Amino acid sequence: MTAAEATVVAVDEVEGLAVEGLRWLTGAARATPGGGVAWPDRLSDDEPTPMLYSGTAGIVPVLLEAWRHFGDDSYADTALRAARGIADRVDGMDDDSLYFGRTGMALVLRAVHDELGDTAAGAAADRALALVRSRFDGTRWGELFELMGGNAGIGLGALVAGDAELAVLAVEPYLRTAERTPAGVQWAWRTDTDSRLHHVSHGTLGIALALARVGRSARRADLVELALAGAADVVARDEAPPEGFLVPHSTPRYRPDVIDPVSYGWCHGPAGDAQAFRLLRDVTADPGWADLADRCWHTVVHSGLPRRLRPGFWDNSGRCCGTAGVLALACDRIAEQQDPHDFAHVLVADLAARAIRDTGGARWSNFEHRPNPGDLEPCTGWAMGNAGIVRELLRFVRLSRGGDPRYAFAWPDQPPVAMPRPGSDAGPATADARAL
């Protein structure tokens, strides 16, 4: 499907689809003791999960987004109840990470405190971060050692949640664990494999992103320099120059029986690589990073997505490894560079076409090509479900109407859009693009 072939969905219809998605999502909430609410990843799951990746913490951001977008206090009320459900789970979590554990919960609790004035949520965020700090062994928190489940994500989350000291504590171990490569550095993302992953979610670029953001905030040139060395290693692996940018999933290939050698989404592909390059652009003011982000976008647009070109190619609508994550980058580019809306319309039309709509609202079923039938149960959360998709649809609607491109809740691994300086031809700048 090209932009010219895409059916353009009217903005009001996109907003209506988002409302239906929110209706299904809020209808899936489960009451918790003390007046809270929580969500399972799938309705068939026995227990809700509080995590950012696929549980209640990842749903709060879209509730805040809906509250800001529509001015409807019912969404804020639900976010407050969700915060109670998250707070009740802080002490019992076994994981401390950003996407799967306490750090992500703390980040969302802090947002509820800041946005809605809920002091109980703020106190729970403080308690969660104190527990995270207490469980640090001097090098790491667990098996994973990357952005989603390890130090890099904990550093990012702690920084945004207001604990700059913990953020530095989390990322400093990368200084002594870096593995030198011909072009830069890389890291073992876990201890039980020789494969090195390269992209944002579990790989070198995610670690580099965290090092750069924390290093800039802490005025630590050594952390920023290490971030640049990590990014240099990934750039040297590019297989699509000069116009594009495409780096393999891993070297040597991790689980080649089930994982494609290249991907295109946020987690393991150029849609996420571009986010890291946007951050490095803002940290260094080096236009070469913006050029790399442009090359990532060229590869995404020319990859064939969101069509299902072959079994296993583009079977996901979600924010982590599907269409919504690409839409997030498309909207960043519309806001920063005044890109045409053409490809964003292609993505939105695809999300509209794949939506399951009935009296209960709208939701999305991802697809797994190996089993039969392959349609998966719809998910609620940020990674693969309604929360991540609806959040991006609402932002697209605002941008299409000339509104504010900023999110109500800024994800720590997606840099804020760089807006042109008023009255200046000097190019874009972000509110937090400070020099070291």
Task: Fill in the keyword field for this structure.
436 residues, two-stranded antiparallel ribbon, 6% strand, disordered C terminus
What does it look like?
It contains 15 helices and ten strands. It is mostly helical. 47% of the residues lie in helices and 6% in strands. The C terminus is likely disordered. Strands 1-2 form a two-stranded antiparallel ribbon.
Mean pLDDT: 94
Helix content: 40-55%
Largest sheet: 2 strands, antiparallel
* Total of DSSP H or I helical runs spanning 4+ residues: 15
Strand line-up across the major sheet: 1-2
Report the strand count: 10
Radius of gyration over C-alpha positions, nearest whole angstrom: 20 Å
How much strand content do the residues show?
5-15%
Contiguous uncertain segments of 5+ residues: 421-436
